Automatic annotation (TrEMBL):
Pfam family, one: Wzy_C
Name the UniProt record assigns to this protein: O-antigen polymerase
TM segment ranges: 43-62, 68-95, 107-126, 141-158, 188-208, 229-253, 273-295, 302-323, 402-426, 438-457, 463-480
UniProt superkingdom: Bacteria
Length: 505
């Protein structure tokens, strides 16, 4: 790569900054050999085979059989890739089928996500040890994050003697690593993210028939033998992320920057399904991403305005469809004046009140909290003492926000560490956004913040959001001076002018 362009991140390196001269754009965006050698078609075909087969069974309401089919098909595909494929393809398959993995994990081991990701990352570390070391050097903010997660989980295990408490923190961390690895190859990253969106479509369409049931009024859940599987936010977040990836940066992160018609066609199933999940967190991620891009992305404001109009039309179309009642119920659940604040927030307002009460109990609890892993126990103990609380009084329930959990379990010390880490990421992403004008990492960063305000965010979907944000913050220090960089730009313009003059003659 030419001097002056060495500060590009692995993923953003192939992004076409509108401000660069054309000659430099060609030089900076030349597809590397490892990206050119990755063929996305077999991966997409295998994901489609797995999810379409499972979705067909799931549409009949036989979730247990769908789980058997899915894990059997995915297992065969993964074994084949482990033996004859490659570690990068295994990682693509895991991200691509994540919506089905989250939905049907109960029919395997609940913690199978961690086992699969650990196995895939171990395989990749053995196959490409140099690449892993390079990522660790570039993503300097990963090390303190992994140290804090390991320490927090160890203290949780010590306090509760329950290995499952806060174990899902590792889902987030492992997904981050997978995204950063895929980010070294733009084609592989785009393949995995596109497959993830397609899998979310199949989950949504296969569960539409369940919305006719009186027990299920939201897309993303299925009731079988009195047991509810799935969660609207598990389906809503991949749809919201896919929606943003389609409209921001011209679909570059999905390898669709040269296919505008296909991108807009892909919005047709994405928007109605996102609306029918009635997931307020997913809606907030989508709306927040549009707003961030509109404010910070000057070149993309017209597209954002068109997207807002398209989203309004999609909402109206869903309201007029047979599924309009379900969407109207979701809107009333959040905005109806007849419902209390606790009802509109699904008990979150009560949890915030109890958490604040427990947090301010003493200077010690304000400083270091009640101890990692004790959030549910603290809520059960203190919910009796706060007047007006009606949500799960006296019961051990998980706290519905990462900030809430950290405040109760780790106090100001934990909040300070979390806030500092997020602030450093924001500074780096903002710097890269101003330099390269790629907006999706910044939109995903705020999307992650919106998610962890409302839920804990310790899952694969949140890991994808934060992982793409981290891709936008990975910086290799520039090895050139400003004078050298200016010389490269002048050389590029000179070549472009020479080529234009030669063509004219």
């Amino acid at each position: 790569m030419r001097a002056g362009l060495k500060s590009f991140t692995p993923a953003i390196r192939y992004w076409n900054p509108p401000g660069l001269p054309s000659a430099l754009i060609v030089s900076a965006t030349r597809t590397p050999a490892k990206a050119a050698s990755f063929n996305p078609t077999p991966i997409l075909a295998q994901v489609l085979f797995c999810v379409l087969l499972t979705g067909g069974v799931l549409a009949t309401g036989r979730a247990r059989l769908a789980g058997i089919v899915f894990w059997g098909a995915l297992g065969l595909i993964l074994v084949r890739q482990f033996v004859w494929g490659g570690s990068l393809k295994v990682l693509c398959l895991l991200i691509g089928t994540a919506p089905f993995i989250n939905l049907l994990r109960g029919f395997a081991l609940y913690n199978i996500v961690i086992l699969l990701f650990v196995a895939a990352l171990t395989y990749h570390m053995i196959s490409r040890p140099g690449e892993m070391r390079l990522i660790w050097r570039k993503a300097s903010l990963l090390k303190p994050m992994f140290v804090c997660i390991a320490a927090f989980y160890a203290l949780s295990l010590f306090n509760t003697r329950d290995y499952s408490v806060n174990l899902r923190l590792f889902e987030l961390a492992l997904t981050l690593m997978v995204l950063l690895i895929l980010g070294q190859n733009p084609v592989a990253l785009g393949t995995a993210l596109t497959a993830n969106l397609v899998s979310a479509w199949v989950v949504g369409f296969s569960l539409l028939s369940q919305m006719n049931s009186s027990s299920v009024a939201r897309l993303g859940m299925i009731v079988m033998d009195g047991q509810t599987l799935g969660n609207p936010i598990q389906l809503g977040l991949p749809l919201a992320f896919g929606f943003l990836a389609l409209i921001i940066d011209r679909g570059y992160w999905l390898n669709l920057q040269h296919r505008p018609v296909l991108r807009y066609c892909m919005l047709v199933p994405t928007l109605p399904l996102l609306a029918l999940t009635t997931s307020r967190s997913a809606w907030l991620v989508a709306a927040g991403g549009i707003m961030v891009t509109f404010l910070a992305g000057k070149k993309q404001r017209i597209i954002m305005l068109m997207t807002i109009a398209l989203g309004f039309l999609a909402f109206q179309a869903v309201l007029l469809s047979p599924y309009g009642k379900s969407l109207k119920k979701g809107l009333d659940r959040t905005f109806s004046e007849r419902r209390t604040a606790s009802q509109r927030t699904s008990g979150r307002s009560d949890q915030w009140r109890v958490s604040y009460y427990a947090f301010t109990e003493s200077p010690v609890t304000m400083l270091i909290g009640h101890g990692p892993g004790r959030g549910a126990e603290v809520y059960a103990d203190y919910s009796h003492e706060v007047g007006g609380v009606k949500y799960a009084v006296g019961k051990k329930v998980a706290l519905h926000s990462l900030f809430m959990q950290v405040a109760v379990e780790a106090g100001c010390l934990g909040l300070s560490l979390l806030g500092l880490w997020l602030f450093l990421i924001f500074i780096r992403i903002t710097r890269q956004t101003l330099l390269h004008r790629a907006m999706l990492p910044l939109a995903c960063y705020f999307g992650y913040l919106f998610v962890v305000i409302t839920v804990s965010g310790n899952d694969v979907n949140s890991g994808i959001l934060l992982g793409l944000a981290l891709l936008g913050s990975m910086v290799v220090p520039a090895q050139t001076t400003k004078r050298q960089a200016m010389r490269v730009q002048l050389e590029g313009r000179a070549r472009l002018n020479h080529k234009t003059a030669f063509s004219a003659t």
